[in-house]
Amino acid sequence: MQKENLSVDYMNFILNKEAGVYGISGVSVDFRDIETEALSGGKQAKLALDVYHYLVACYVVRCAVAMGGIDVLTFTAGVGEKGPISRKAICNQLEFLGVKIDEEKNKIRGEEAELSSSDSKVKIYTIPTNEELMIARETLKLVN
Length: 144
What we know:
Layout: H1 8-18, H2 20-25, H3 31-39, H4 43-67, E1 72-76, H5 77-82, H6 84-93, E2 113-114, E3 123-127, H7 131-143
Helix pairs in contact: 3-4, 4-6
């Protein structure tokens, strides 16, 4: 900020709107757009997905270490519910933990389902969220 003489507001804009997957992909903050570009040969979009998948797998491993292992891996929210490409890529990086995703089951989008293969040591699920309901419940708690 000091070197470029940027305001706090502009720096906040950069960090929240122009960094992360958008900064890497140059496409969007929407993973659907990034996946589309990556599948069309976009190298920066593929890099953004690779970084994202790697970081999610790293966080899962950190949690597994803290808990002494994992029995269940659950994907939820936008990417987790509707992102078979991301789910597969993340699970592939976690195979050393016994995580194995079933290719056919992984095609499911937006519904609750088990995705693990029959020989997976870890159960894999996708569970849709209702973010609006959760926001309403949290708001009600604050109001009361």
